[in-house]
Amino acid sequence: MAVANTGRMETGINVRDWINDKILIFDGAMGTMLQQRGLVPGALPELLNLTDPDTVADIHREYVLAGADVITANTFRRMSSSCMESIASRRSLRRG
């Protein structure tokens, strides 16, 4: 999904047609941005999608305001087993 510089979500965009008309600007350095907001080095950034989604959304919003055309997901490890284990552990602690 692409986000136009206006901040509106655009759907149904044919990316192949779009890149013929312009150079696409992607977001980047998500890990750096998360660390600037308190993510401890070595921590799983994907967990912030669940524990602090507002921070993740704020960073995405800043990229759009800075001119990014494409915003990528905060999924460094694609919900790896280490991330899933951490999520399961946090859920069991809350229930316990």
Report on this model:
This protein is mainly α and 96 residues long. The protein has one domain. It has 5 helices and 2 strands, in the order E-E-H-H-H-H-H. It has helices spanning 15-21, 30-36, 48-51, 53-65, 81-95, and strands spanning 2-3, 9-10. The protein has a two-stranded antiparallel sheet. The longest helix has 15 residues, at 81-95. It is elongated and about 45 Å long. Mean pLDDT is 76; it is low at 1-7.
| Strand residue percentage | under 5%
Q: Could you state the oligomeric state of the chains shown? A: single chain
* DSSP, total strands: 2
Contiguous runs where pLDDT drops below 50 for at least 5 residues: 1-7
- What string, H for helix and E for strand, traces the elements in order? EEHHHHH
Percentage of helical residues? 40-55%
Helix vs. strand class: mainly alpha
- Rg calculated over all Cα atoms: 16 Å
User: What is the spatial order of strands in the main beta sheet?
Assistant: 1-2
User: What is the overall silhouette?
Assistant: elongated
Tally of individual domains:
1
Distance between the termini: 39 Å
Averaged pLDDT, please? 76
Largest sheet features: 2 strands, antiparallel
What's the helix count?
5
In short:
The protein is mostly helical and 96 residues long.
Structural key phrases:
single chain; 96 residues; mainly alpha; two-stranded antiparallel sheet; 2 strands; elongated
How would you summarize the topology of this molecule?
Layout (H helix, E strand, L loop, with lengths): L1 E2 L5 E2 L4 H7 L8 H7 L11 H4 L1 H13 L15 H15 L1
Antiparallel strand pairs: 1-2
